[in-house]
Amino acid sequence: MRTALANISHLQSLPLALTLLVFLVFPIAVIVTVSFWGYDSYQLLPAFIFDNYQYLLSSSVTWQAYLNTFKYAVITWAITFVLGFTVAYYLAFHIRSTRMQTLLFLLCTIPFFTSNIIRMISWIPLLGRNGLVNSSLQSVGLIDQPLEFLLYSDFSIVLAYVHLYTLFMVVPIFNTMMRIDRRLIEAARDAGAHTWQILLLVIVPLCKSGILIGSIFVLTMVMGDFVTVRIMGGGLRASVGVLIHNEISLLQYPAAAAGAVVLLATVLLMLVAMFRLVDIRKEL
Amino acid sequence: MKRTRRPASFYFLSVVFGLFLLFLYGPTLTIGILSFQGPNGGLTFPLNGVSLHWFGNLFTTQQVGDFGGSFMRSILLGLGVMVCTLLFSVLAGFAYRRRFAGSQWLFYLTLASLIIPSILVSLGIGLMFDRLGWDPNWYSSAFGAHLTWTLPFGLLIMFAVFNRFDRAYEMAARDLGASPWQTVRLIVLPLIAPSLFGVALFGLTLSYDEFARTLMVAGSFNTLPLEVFGMTTNVTTPVLYALGTLTTLFSFSLIALVLLAMAVSARARKGA
């Protein structure tokens, strides 16, 4: 009986397993294989050489891109964490009616279901040389020249990340906050804790798993991104993803594959470090 | 609940939250307004008259690539991905109600699928098709690429659903003589129906808007996001905003439709 049921489970999970095998595991295996191949202007040359890695790791462009990407990741993480935590805290502890809570939560999540590219483009009329921000500041007389750093800069890239990814902090943190037993907070208050003490000593530790899940999302998405840097950086900024994308555009697949393998290893190392701190399945 | 006086922090945080919503929706609203720019208007304010010129422009083929075709492809692809996501996630959700050999592995693989940098999926599937000598197409390679993005969300939602599911209903049905299939069809599926609309929404909209995983694997015919990305580099008129506004409105109506369906099915469940 028990084995029969287990077999049913295997059958039921088969479509998922097969899809991931064909469209995730095999492709990654192909990338790893091709990363050891050679290439010339016309074709890929099957081989087992380390040239791609050697070139990649000895190039200062690579290191610069990694440095840049880590910079984006850390800044974005810090901002999305503070902003996401604040929003989740407001929704979970300051909104009293469940109906209102659901409504406001929905308002925060709806943009996730719309196009990222369109949402990035939407910043152009606001941040451009003649955009709304510059023209308003000029007409008020705060500045004489349009601010150049607003668009196609590190600023606009991080702004777009925050715009796109804060949601990924809000949802898991809100989720863990909603499961905090309110009596714990009352007990803390009765024991004389100040609002700030309750926040830092009771709520934050109890939200640890939500914060970690959010952080995993934000950090891995920024690390692997190339679209945002491409559009919001105006082609002037480099990140790890952009380098790989450039090599793909030049049809230098083995070089791109080596870059992708190193990126994957970096992300996995970050994940291993973070997964040690939380068991995601218990948190759903 | 006892009504107490709001602390000062409530008002401060309300303002922060309001600004956050403005930050979320403001830019979208801006291009919404600018897409009604007059025929001689540019990419920024001020509005140079008000017209539907740029919306009309979308439907004349030579102006902007293949809007109609890419839109149709994205819809069809989204619907296909939606059906598969729903089917595969619900089945897998049922599978995970029992322990089975390899369940941990499959779970980690699914998570990996979610957080792996999209460019690896794109490059990997592209290379795989290239090595196998197959032509990439929006309905084959891109279809698989989209599933790697939607299935993890589907499975995670199913976990959340079954973690909160009260097995007493099922057991009662079995005690009353229902067959396993009857129990699933008449008890479990109706109970989880509202969440299934949620899974469907993830499948459809995430596929419809997916870009990074589609980039190398769509073949010779673009999906809509690829078309839009192409436009960002060579279109310098508000037609880009018109397209953005239309596709955002389309997503909003899908969300509204699903929320409505969820509300209706939740009400039907209560009434039953």
Automatic annotation (TrEMBL), chain A:
InterPro entries per record: MetI-like (IPR000515), MetI-like_sf (IPR035906)
Xref: CDD domains: TM_PBP2 (cd06261)
Domain of life: Bacteria
Localisation per UniProt entry: Cell membrane
Listed transmembrane segments: 16-39, 72-91, 103-126, 155-177, 198-223, 255-278
Domain ABC transmembrane type-1: 66-274
Keyword field: Cell membrane, Membrane, Transmembrane, Transmembrane helix, Transport
Its membrane topology: Multi-pass membrane protein
Pfam families, A to Z: BPD_transp_1 (PF00528)
Homology family: Belongs to the binding-protein-dependent transport system permease family. CysTW subfamily.
Entry protein name: ABC transporter permease
UniProtKB/TrEMBL annotation, chain B:
UniProt subcellular location: Cell membrane
Pfam families per the UniProt record, alphabetical: BPD_transp_1
UniProt entry keywords in alphabetical sequence: Cell membrane, Membrane, Transmembrane, Transmembrane helix, Transport
Transmembrane segments: 12-36, 75-94, 106-129, 141-162, 183-206, 239-264
Topological relation to the membrane, as annotated: Multi-pass membrane protein
Domain of life: Bacteria
Domain ABC transmembrane type-1: 71-258
PANTHER family hit by this protein: PUTRESCINE TRANSPORT SYSTEM PERMEASE PROTEIN POTI (PTHR43848)
Family: Belongs to the binding-protein-dependent transport system permease family. CysTW subfamily.
Name this polypeptide is given: ABC transporter permease
Organism: Stutzerimonas azotifigens
Upper taxonomic lineage: Bacteria, Pseudomonadati, Pseudomonadota, Gammaproteobacteria, Pseudomonadales
